[in-house]
């Protein structure tokens, strides 16, 4: 069940990231800093979804070799999607599906040029707040093994055995939400 069917949809988050206000977000190698201006909750019918799908295609299909026919699925139609914007451009995304008192996060993607700059953390924190507001007591997700440490730093705990999803090793992770 999408979050939007149970609670207010269309929330946004002003999330200016600057080295002065957010410790540790200076990019490595002297790259230009990313200014994340907004995170939006959107539905599958929102005009921004074409940019969300384009980013997901770049990350999952082009970079990671996920078969294109697996990247978009029926859950996209009912999910609440988050889009992180910088200068009006989608630089990060994820989707949230509610299943009773659990929220499932999936399709987390950040553009290659925006990684390691706090965008993923901002998206995940916004997703946790959104899920909690919608009545979820926990978040579950299938993490790529290469991203497990990222999720652990956010309080997620590994559960179960490694499994294959679209040719990529994953493990389930869970986090209890604070009420």
What does this structure look like?
This protein is of the alpha+beta class and 179 residues long. It has a single domain, classed as Gcn5-related N-acetyltransferase (GNAT) (Aminopeptidase, 3-Layer(aba) Sandwich). 25% of the residues lie in helices and 34% in strands. It has five helices and eight strands; from the N terminus they run E-E-H-H-H-E-E-E-H-E-H-E-E. It has an eight-stranded mixed β-sheet. Strand 4 (89-99) and strand 5 form a beta hairpin. The longest helix is centred in the first third of the chain and has 15 residues, at 49-63. The relative contact order is 0.16.
Give the arrangement of secondary structure elements.
Elements: E1 12-14, E2 38-42, H1 49-63, H2 68-71, H3 75-78, E3 80-86, E4 89-99, E5 102-110, H4 119-133, E6 138-144, H5 148-153, E7 157-165, E8 168-176
Parallel strand pairs: 5-6
Antiparallel strand pairs: 1-2, 2-3, 3-4, 4-5, 6-8, 7-8
| Main sheet specs | 8 strands, mixed
Distance separating the two termini: 20 Å
CATH topology: Aminopeptidase
* Structural shape: globular
Spell out the CATH superfamily: Gcn5-related N-acetyltransferase (GNAT)
Mean pLDDT: 84
What is the CATH architecture assignment? 3-Layer(aba) Sandwich
